[in-house]
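Q: What structure does this chain adopt?
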Amino acid sequence: MGLGDIFDPGDVFGFQQDDRIAKANAAAKQAYDKSMETSDANRALYNQYYNKMNQTYGDTAGKYGDYLSDLENLEVYDPGQFSYDKDVNDFYSKAANQRINNAMNAITNSRANAGNMFTSDYANEMAAKQQALASEEWDKAYDRYNQDRAMALNEFSTNANLGNQRYQNQFNKSNTLLGQASNAQDNLSNAYGNYMTNLASQNNTDAQNYANYVQAQAANNLSKKGLIGRILG
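A:
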């Protein structure tokens, strides 16, 4: 193998090779700089993405504690026990005795006019009439008692249902808000995970590009040293 097979005889001192190595190093530097520009652009996009997620979900996610406290402190609605403090006597007509007395007087007058006032039939009729009228008045009183109690129970039930509905509405609202805040936190957590994954991946890419750049420079410089060695024998 002749000397001309190793290097260009017209470039005894390797000046042209130095120029090629310098250009190769410049190209490697340009490629590395371009990769870093891309890295900066990617990082800006990652930050833009995470900031956008914060703007969208951050405020709602930040209220999770408040919504949880509202739900925990929501007092369970208790309508209490239905109570009714009246009895049948409260509905017994005040005019009942007067009506009974009037009926008794009517029977007495009728018997007196007929001349048989002092017979057993008269006493039996009086007792039967008095008992029938008294029973009738108590039946009426009992009906009025049941009606009034049913009205009171219906009013209690209506108020209890309204109170329970208000409680359910507040519970549903607090629970819905808590769910929204929880979802917002999940979205932010996922966004942060994606953000960190992208940054880690970008860091690895940057490290690999830098390693490639250093290796390219080392290879170029090594070829320069090899050329000098060949020139010097």
